[in-house]
Specification:
The chain is an all-alpha fold. About 75% of the residues lie in helices and about 0% in strands. The relative contact order is 0.08.
């Protein structure tokens, strides 16, 4: 073996070692970032569960928090205040699911998105839910909810009792990644 061939092989091995080290570092970085994001979402969800439990178990606290969040609705009944808080609880959970799908943190994004769409179809038809989403959630989740709202409303209008194919859920193609 010539010295130059030996040097070339050593150089090639060194180069491949460098490339594989960089690739491994990048893979570890992105995997760690994904895990940290999921841990953050889990911590946030757990915090909200604690807050929800505390607020719903104390009527006076529910009244206070609702009056802070909705100063123009202070005369609402306790049932209306509880319903608004339930909308927050549900929207928080669905927002976390939405972000998990969007950032590819869930094991089966397609099934998760179908489930999310199904959950939102009825909820988005309620003014209380949409008002909460409109004022308290990030734009992309808000826009997603409005897409579901509009699509569901259109599918209801297009279904007639005499129709053979009156499946409201017939068009569930992915819309989060679009």
């Amino acid at each position: 073996m010539e010295p130059s061939t030996s040097n070339d092989i050593s150089l090639l091995i060194s180069f491949l070692s460098l490339v594989s080290s960089i690739a491994l570092a990048l893979i570890l970085y992105y995997a760690t970032k994904k895990i940290e994001t999921q841990n953050f979402s889990n911590t946030l969800r757990d915090s909200w569960i604690q807050i929800d439990g505390t607020i719903l178990s104390n009527e006076r606290l529910l009244i206070e928090i609702d009056d802070l969040l909705h100063p123009n609705k202070k005369s609402s009944t306790i049932e209306e205040k509880r319903r608004r808080w339930l909308c927050f609880m549900i929207a928080n959970t669905l927002s976390v699911n939405y972000n998990g799908i969007k950032h590819k943190l869930l094991p089966d994004p397609k099934a998760s998105e179908e489930s999310l769409i199904h959950s939102l179809e009825g909820l988005t038809q309620h003014d209380e839910f949409m008002e909460i989403v409109k004022y308290f959630y990030e734009k992309d989740f808000r826009d997603f909810c409005w897409k579901i709202h509009d699509r569901y409303k259109l599918s209801i209008k297009s279904v007639s009792p005499d129709s053979e194919n009156n499946n409201v859920h017939k068009s569930k193609e992915a819309i989060i990644s679009k």
